[in-house]
Task: inverse folding
C-alpha cells in the first residue's frame, strides 16, 4: 500500500524563526494523507503540518515553537478545511466485482437447467 501526502494549504507566517530570527521565511504547510493500492484509492482524515523556514532551510519542530507561533498555528489549524474522506474503487476492483457477478449469474443459470 502506497501512502503519500497531498498539499492542502501553505501559509506564510510573519513570526520570527527560532533558528535564524528571520521574519520572512516561515511557511506552514498542511498535508492530508492519501493511501493507494491496486484496488482502491482513499483520502484519509489524517492531517500533517510542517513548519519550515525557507531562509535557513530548517524544519521547526513543535518543541522549538514560541507562544506566538503556537497561537498562529492553532488559528490556521482551526481555519483549515480538509478534503472529505473518500474511497474510490479502481478498474481492477470493478473488473473483479463484475467477474464475480457474472460467475454468480452463470452459476444460478446453470442450476436452473439441471
Result:
Amino acid at each position: 500500500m502506497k501512502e503519500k501526502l497531498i498539499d492542502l494549504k501553505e501559509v506564510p507566517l510573519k513570526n520570527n524563526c527560532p533558528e535564524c530570527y528571520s521574519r520572512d521565511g516561515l511557511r506552514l504547510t498542511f498535508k492530508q494523507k492519501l493511501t493507494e493500492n491496486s484496488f482502491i484509492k482513499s483520502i484519509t482524515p489524517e492531517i500533517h503540518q510542517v513548519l519550515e523556514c525557507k531562509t535557513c532551510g530548517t524544519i521547526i519542530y513543535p518543541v522549538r515553537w514560541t507562544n506566538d507561533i503556537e497561537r498562529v498555528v492553532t488559528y490556521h489549524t482551526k481555519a483549515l478545511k480538509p478534503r472529505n474522506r473518500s474511497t474510490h474503487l479502481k478498474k481492477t476492483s470493478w473488473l473483479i466485482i463484475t467477474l464475480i457477478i457474472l460467475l454468480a449469474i452463470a452459476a444460478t443459470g446453470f442450476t436452473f437447467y439441471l
In short: The chain has one domain: 2-113. The mean pLDDT is 88.
